[in-house]
């Protein structure tokens, strides 16, 4: 299933293969340049990772793709359509689902309701039909609930449908966020540090889970991650940001060997010592 | 608390030990089964007897109807829970609808005096509709609206414009122009202006107000929290000012609202002679000329007709609130209330969804306003000041944000207190402590005018509720948790703090 090792980004990829193309994306907060003219490509069916030290601009980058922030400059093209400056719900509608770095579930809704909210843009019940509860609407709701249960089962949350989200264990909350994002029927799934705060066993399970998503749902995944074991284990392609700039990209192995990456993570001194 | 439980447990054990000592066998615990009918019957029976014992002197002669009502209530309690789910609301609706028939039979309550009069219950019902409308905005979607009175005014004025002599221009011969007459009931000759059937107008008023809600909502709903509250407060202030000064709108000679005098008279609702005759007089032809009809030896008054109309409206509003809460839109509202950013990321269009909640709330506010205008027979700008906005908001908060039954209770309680409750309580206090022939003992002379302190009393009530029961009298469990544990309020805390 997995695609061949991606070519280096410098060579333009074949058209139709590229799902997400980010072109010169830049974000300034006042005088601070959080993301500095980053070019970026995610291929259909790949698992791409975005890594970098704290404050490198990874989440800002995510927020620009999903429409939470408007970029200062640059373009985001998804499946051939320019999404730059579109509001978040429009981006979601077009097939980009996301999770958040610190879990942002609807904490007082049940797991099932959380997933149903994720289906919002795929359902059609309007206000009049909701009040009259027409047969068509009932069928739609029944289908939606069935689908939501399936998604929860996929994310190994079967039996926890009626739990209020905040009462779920931490790992389950993380997976519920993924289930909710999957409910939006994404073509591209953005995961913002999904294993943050997990113990090694949980993050191992999660790594396996990402593989399942890719295999069973033929999803394209873009991952922000700090856990190198996860990054190197699942990614087809890794991009490294530091101080808002892209400093390296390529296969996990290439990136691991790149001196600029080592420098960014461990500091110049470490590199100098290593050479000595 | 623990000490208390211990004592209770010890007392229970001691009780059974004593019985065992005299040879009575102790029954096995059956905590996992439905308790027997006898066991379920005991506690309410005890409470009922207690109430009877206390209230006996209140109605000196025992009334069979009241005893029968008590027996029926008791019977309902004994029903299996499934049947109770249908029977309880049905009984409640029946009790409310039949209110005019047994109002005369009711006793006087201590402190509160007589049960609310027909005029009061009409106002209570109308305010219930408004509170339920505001509940969609504040309770479901979590948008604090301090200018709800604007919608109420809008609905009332819409009804007034199209069912009154307001826009009657004069013909050259001095008589008034009849602009349009469509299905209006009993409009005398010689009265000009628009006269549209009031049933149509209720709907039109609702839709028009919803439209105004959308127009107000589009610029304001981009704001969050406190900012939204301030802007809605502004709109709530603008509306009555426009109404008050609208007799020469923008300095032109166009008279939109008839200024401080207000618009009156407004036509009467009714079903017309055709419908009335077709139903054998069951539907009155006109609410004002209805009243030689009688039913169950009870002379029906026009106020009672307004009451039943308002009750039907309340039922429709409850139905809509309930259906919407459990719909795709309702889920989106709750999601927005809990976390806007996450809701947007899940594909919920924020502006559109919020605007829908505004429009829905405005719709019910508008219908209620139109009914109120018809009931009073006129609209007056002084009825639409800021205090009404706060008053309706208090109903929602007192009853329990987001909970339909709570909001109904809150609206009824506050509307009752405002209409006659506080005056009654004041009278009761003065009777006992104030005059020289004070029933208990004289504390002061001359009497205190309790209704003067109405808003102070509401303030105290809200304060007490906020301190001891922030989720309201009958709060939704979800809202209770949110209040205790908080929701994501800060916009995108994560990305700004960490991702930069």
Give the arrangement of secondary structure elements.
The complex is a heterodimer of chains A (about 280) and B (about 500).
Chain A: E1 18-29, E2 32-43, E3 47-51, H1 58-65, E4 73-78, E5 81-82, H2 88-93, E6 96-98, H3 111-118, H4 127-132, H5 135-154, H6 170-183, E7 188-192, H7 200-217, E8 220-224, H8 228-234, E9 237-242, E10 245-250, H9 252-257, H10 259-266, H11 268-275
Helix pairs in contact in A: 3-5, 3-6, 5-6, 10-11
Chain B: H1 2-21, H2 37-55, H3 64-78, H4 81-97, H5 99-102, H6 118-140, H7 149-162, E1 181-182, E2 195-196, H8 198-220, H9 225-245, H10 272-278, E3 294-295, E4 298-299, H11 302-325, H12 328-338, H13 340-345, H14 350-376, H15 386-399, H16 404-433, H17 454-468, H18 477-485, H19 493-499
Parallel strand pairs in B: 1-2
Antiparallel strand pairs in B: 3-4
Helix pairs in contact in B: 2-3, 6-11, 6-14, 6-15, 6-16, 7-8, 7-9, 7-14, 8-14, 11-14, 12-14, 15-16
Features:
heterodimer; A: Rossmann fold; 2 domains; 39% helix; 22% strand; B: 500 residues; mainly alpha; two-stranded parallel ribbon; 19 helices; globular
Between the first and last Cα atoms of chain B, what is the distance in angstroms? 50 Å
Please give the share of residues in helix of chain B. 55-70%
**CATH homologous superfamily label of the largest domain in chain A:** P-loop containing nucleotide triphosphate hydrolases
**Parts with pLDDT < 50 across at least 5 consecutive residues of chain A:** 1-16
What is the number of E strands of chain B?
4
- What is the 3D shape of chain A? globular
Tally the helices of chain A: 11
Low-confidence runs of at least 5 consecutive residues of chain B? 492-500
How many DSSP H or I helices of chain B? Answer: 19
Strand order of the largest sheet of chain B: 1-2
**Structural domain count of chain B:** 1
Chain-averaged pLDDT of chain A? 86
